[in-house]
Amino acid sequence: MLFTSEQVAGIRDGRITLTFRRWKRPQARAGRFQRTAAGMIKIDSVDVVLARQISDQDARGAGFDSRAALLDWIEGDEHVYRVAFHREGEDKRAVLQQTLPSRAELNDLHQRLARMDDGSPRGAWTLETLKRIRANPGLRAANLAAGVGVDTQVFKKDVRRLKALGLTISLEVGYRLSPRGEAALDYLLSRRTTMAQPASPG
């Protein structure tokens, strides 16, 4: 689930413990954990409710000043999902995103990305994807995918694999490289430059 920057702040300080979603089918389940920009949250309950059943207290729990403001945000749908949750702590992956890799970790990342490339039916994709995200922070996934000539869902799946390594960060729209991703990309580009240089005459 994605949250606005204001909602992220409210989840972090404990003011926000509810969200309302216009899903065709539930995309959260009680007892499960989810990564968010506010850290790890645990889903306490997921219920279908009528918009008219939402109270002012519910609205405040979701980070809105009033029930009317919440209904305006969800566009007054008759049936919505009411998701109750609580914050469990920091997302280890988010911590990894902010951690600059050592030389040994850079070598390991290079090898892992190379294996991803080798195992892909469309060949090498990791370097080009990282470069495109760096050049276009916040660009819609569909536009990024079109730029490298792949289906949007395939592109999103690829980015999730990079995110699992701590290299990318999901924004409200699009992505950006994490500090770890920036360091990894610089390393990959430097290796390519070094390998492309002609050998010195003996």
Describe this structure in words.
The chain has 202 residues and is of the alpha+beta class. The protein is built from nine helices and six strands; from the N terminus they run H-E-E-E-H-H-E-H-H-H-H-H-E-E-H. The strands form two sheets. Strands 1-4-3-2 form a four-stranded antiparallel sheet. It has a two-stranded antiparallel ribbon with strand order 5-6. Helix 6 packs across helix 9 and helix 7 (141-148) packs across helix 8 (152-164). It is elongated and about 65 Å long.
Which range best describes the helical content: under 10%, 10-25%, 25-40%, 40-55%, 55-70% or over 70%? 40-55%
Spell out the helices and strands N to C.
HEEEHHEHHHHHEEH
Low-confidence stretches: none
- The secondary-structure class comes to alpha+beta
Rg, Å, rounded: 21 Å
Largest sheet: 4 strands, antiparallel
How many angstroms does the end-to-end distance come to? Answer: 59 Å
| Mean pLDDT metric | 91
Beta-strand portion reads 15-25%
User: Order of strands across the biggest sheet?
Assistant: 1-4-3-2
Number of helices: 9
Number of strands: 6
Could you state the oligomeric state of the chains shown?
single chain
Q: What is the 3D shape?
A: elongated
In short:
With about 200 residues, this protein is of the alpha+beta class. It has helices at about 5-10, 55-60, 65-75, 90-95, 105-120, 125-135, 140-150, 150-165, 180-195, and strands spanning about 20, 35, 40-50, 80-90, 170, 175.
Features:
elongated; 46% helix; two-stranded antiparallel ribbon; 202 residues; 4-stranded antiparallel sheet; 6 strands
SSE layout:
Blueprint: H1 5-12, E1 18-21, E2 33-36, E3 39-50, H2 56-61, H3 67-73, E4 79-89, H4 92-97, H5 103-118, H6 126-135, H7 141-148, H8 152-164, E5 168-170, E6 175-177, H9 179-196
Antiparallel strand pairs: 1-4, 2-3, 3-4, 5-6
